[in-house]
Amino acid sequence: MEVHHHAGHHGPKKWKEHITEFLMLFLAVSLGFLAENIREEQVVAHQTESVMSQLYHELQKDTASLHKIDVVHNKQDTATIVLENYILNTDLEANKLNFFYLHNYLCIREGMFETSCIALDQLKFAGILKNVKDSKLRDCIEKYDLLLLQIKVRTERESDFMNRYMDDIRIAPFDYYYRTNSASSDSFFNIKSSSMNSVVVTYHKKNYDLFLNKIYVPENLKLKKFDKELYLNRMLQLNGIRKSTNVNQAVQILNAGTVLLQNIERVYPNINEAH
């Protein structure tokens, strides 16, 4: 007699069980992908906000610098007008000390803008700008970046002009040295002088404070014969470059920087806490 053993035999799974297992596996994989995407989005958002915080505080430095430059350019324009009037309409010898102050003030490299915005390069070249979803904020960033390129060209133009002409202009009107006995080992000596960082020039009953970047005023200041027309033309050219930069670029970029700051604050209201 044959004995048949049924050792735990199971029949085929029902189709509903297959569907349930598939759905559970699909759900697990989907949740994994979702969790990874959320984590990546959080990392990107944190990175973007960190760079925007850096940009915000660098922009504050830029706008403060641009405010100062606007004041400097206006003062340079006034100083040039006063200097022109001294040369054309007054006894220059009688006004040589004020002329000396104005001359030295206009010969220093003041009012040239250099941006502090390193974060802009991170936004552009690290591909972070695409993560800024607010279109108005993105447009403000791109506009400010474009104006930075334009004012850099203007600044280079002023610097090039000063490199080409300022050495000759600086020494044209005044005799800073005197010749000693030819037998002396040193044939030139500096005239005794006093150091000054700033002065007040009075013209037509108005006072003008001028920063002089530590100049030395000779005790026996001597005015040389010089080509007044050439000298004045160079000074007016320089002032024209400065004034054009201020009107066409510095004021524009100051306004653009202010608007950009406002939009960063709008999109990232806690930006000051993030720094």
Please tell me about this protein's structure.
The structure is a single chain. By secondary structure, this protein is α+β, with helices and mostly antiparallel strands. It is 64% helix and 12% strand. It contains six helices and six strands; from the N terminus they run ααααββββββαα. The protein has helices at 15-89, 96-107, 119-125, 135-171, 228-267, 271-274, and strands spanning 174-175, 177-179, 188-190, 193-203, 206-218, 222-223. A two-stranded antiparallel ribbon has the order 1-6. A two-stranded antiparallel sheet has the order 2-3. Strand 4 and strand 5 form a beta hairpin. Helix 1 crosses helix 3 (119-125) and helix 4 (135-171) runs antiparallel to helix 5 (228-267). The longest helix is centred in the N-terminal third of the chain and has 75 residues, at 15-89.
Average pLDDT metric:
82
**Radius of gyration in whole Å, from Cα?**
35 Å
In the predicted model, the low-confidence regions spanning at least 5 consecutive residues are 186-191
Structural class comes to: alpha+beta
Terminal CA distance: 90 Å
Question: Numbering strands along the chain, what is their spatial order in the largest sheet?
Answer: 1-6
Main beta-sheet annotation: 2 strands, antiparallel
Strand content: 5-15%
Tell me the helix content.
55-70%
How many helices does DSSP assign?
A: 6
Which overall shape is indicated by the principal axes computed on the Cα atoms?
A: rod-shaped
Number of strands: 6
